[in-house]
Structure formats: structure tokens, C-alpha cells
Amino acid sequence: MNDDTPPGFHRTYGLELLCEEEPVWSHDALAAAVSKHCPGVDVRSGEGESGTSFFHPSVPIELKDRTICAQTALMKADRSPDLGALEPSLQQSWRFPEARAAVARARHTLLLTDLMSAGLEPPMRLEIIQRVLAGVLETVSCVAVHWIASGQLTDPKEALAALQSGEYASPQHGAINARLFRVGRYGDEIEGEINGDTVMDTLGLSALGLADLQIHFRKLDPQRVARVLLNTALYLFENGPVIESGHTIAGVEPKQEWLCQYEDALVGPARMVIDLNPGSPFAAGNRA
Question: 39-52: per-residue pLDDT in tens?
């Protein structure tokens, strides 16, 4: 990548596996588990407990002066889980109601990250790390998976079941999140206020080089809005950046069209997003 890398894009894509007991594994057991999901993977362990590297020779990476292969690394963090730093993700982990209780039990952290893979297409990049994740989850016990790029925690048992069914390239098991923020009519945050305006966005696509989505609205059912956001995010993940400013997408009602416009994100992290305008009387913010 060069210095023109868009804000939000992740040169390395990482997950945190939060463990109650200190994670231990044998090289042979881990290599066998990962090899089931990544045929042909080359598994190399460092000296002592310095970590394990996974080389994927079937996925070449073209550099200026040579060709290498995509890589993934698993290593123990030298710190306990930071509960304060996890709070924003805990507040947006809608699919894992037990996340807070699970995180409270965690005492150890494993890091799983890709290397030299930023130039891959999003489906391939995610598939590689999720194939490795499947093998790791079969070998190491953890209580939660923290998807750093999408700002949410997921149930490792549910994630493993989906991956074992072959859904390696799907972003629906943690890679994309739909977040919700309640705001006042004049932009002041009102915790739990259902009558105020609402901002919803997706988080996760930007880390893979695509635009996330956002919408600032009122008088719409957030659950129905979330379905539109996630379905549109999945469409972008599978088809690439095919939505341009001025295009429209289907809204929550029949024949309802929402106008798309590239804008800076209203809620961090800083990144370019596709803003959806639901029109009057549903649009909030300056558009209203």
C-alpha cells in the first residue's frame, strides 16, 4: 500500500480471542486443525511461545520486486483484556447478549492477524483469516471473539459452527456490524431517548477497502433500517464499490428509494461512507 491509503483501511486485519484460562496448544494439533480448513497451508511455530505463522502458498501477493504469499499470525498478547477499551464494542454487540458477562471472565488475549494481505479483494482477504480462525477455535478455548474492525464481540461457538458449515467468506459472522446511536434533534446525545433522532451506520467494510454506510433519521424502525444497512453492506462486499453518489437503493417500504451520497462519517472512526437520505419526513440533520 502507499500513503494514499484511505482512512479506516487496515493494512493488517486483526481479531482478539478473549480467553478465561491461559491458552495453550500443541503445534501438531493446531497445524492439523487449521490444515482442515486451509488445504496446503504451511504452519510454522516460533521459538518458545513467540507465536505461530500460517503461510498460504495458494494465495500469491505481487510486490514490486518479488512474489510472496498471504500470511496469518497467531500470538499471545502480553496484556490482559482491557475492559475499558472494549466498552464501545460491548455497547454495539447486538448478536451476543452475553458478551459483557463473557468479557468479565476473560483474563488472557490471543491476537490473530493477517500479514501482507491488504491488496487482496475483500472476500478473499476475509476468507483466509476466517479459515484460520476456524482451526484456532477448534484448538483453543475462548469466551469471546473481538472483531476490532467492526467494533463488536461475537460468540465463538456460533462463529465456529458457521465456519464449520463452510461459510468462510461470509462477513455476517462478525466482520460487519450495524451500530446505533441516539442523538437529540440539535445534535446533543440523549442516552436511551427514543424520541430523538437516530444515527445508524455499518462498521467493518472500511477496514477491507470499501465504503461503510450511514443514515441519520427519525420515525423509522431501527431494526428495519439495520436490515437495509446490512443487506446493502453484504451487496457491496460481494460486488465491490458499485454504488456511486446519486444512486438510490430500496428503503424499508415498497417503492421507497433512498438517495446515496459519499460523505465523511458522522461517527468515528474517521472514514468515507455512503450516506443514505431517506427523504421527508424521515431524514434528520441538515437534510431535514
Answer: 999 999 875 556 89
Number of Cα atoms under 13 Å in the Cβ half of residue 88: 13
| pTM exceeding the 0.85 threshold for the entire prediction | yes
In this structure, the chain runs to a length of 288
Looking at 142, 164, 186, the residue that finishes a domain is 164
Strand ranges across the sheet with 144-147: 42-45, 52-62, 67-76, 108-115, 14-19, 144-147, 152-154
Structural domain range at position 68: 14-164
Q: What whole-number distance in Å separates Cα of residue 64 and Cα of residue 39? A: 28
CA dist 46 and 4 (Å) reads: 34
Distance CA 9, CA 284 (A): 28
Spatial contact of 273 and 8, defined as CB atoms under 8 Å apart = no
First to last CA, the chain: 39
